[in-house]
Amino acid sequence: MEHESMRYAGFWIRFLAALIDAIVLMAVMYILGLTSSETFSVEWNIENLIGLAYYIILTGLYGQTLGKMIIGVKVVRTDGSAAGWGAVVLRETIGKILSAIVFFLGFIWAGFDKQKQAWHDKIASTYIVKTK
Questions:
Q1: Digit-coded pLDDT (tens) for 55-90
Q2: What is the pTM of this model?
């Protein structure tokens, strides 16, 4: 995919995909009996590890989580190729922590950026592009 032909996914499309992912993860946690609200408890840590694995594994394998698949967007490198495991791990860990740390400004940034990149996309050299 050429850089000029990429159709970037904006804030609201990304938000809807994230909302679908949150619903999927909440259902999984409920089925597994993991509903702890106590921060840093064993259950809370397991919930976070499952969530992190969900994002890293699906994005690493397919370039998409279930939410992104349903909405029709995917994570790619800035040249349009598959993101690759290194970029995915960087994006989903350090990148998203930095995006969230200042009042979630890093996520909101995608709504104002010319190429619709959030901070975690900039850090990992990725875009979210439309597939439909």
A1: 999 999 999 999 999 999 999 999 999 999 999 999
A2: 0.92
Structure tokens at 108: 């909101």
Distance between CA atoms of residues 37 and 87, nearest Å = 31
> Which residues make Cβ contacts (< 8 Å) with residue 56, sequence separation at least 6?
88, 89, 92, 93
Distance (Å, rounded) from C-alpha 107 to C-alpha 111? 8
Residue ranges covered by each domain of the chain:
3-130
Three-state DSSP class for 73? strand
Distance of CA 37 to the CA centre of its chain: 22
Q: Two tokens at 53?
A: 């694995």
Tell me which amino acid residue 80 is: G
Dihedral through CA 17, CA 105, CA 53, CA 126, nearest 10? 80
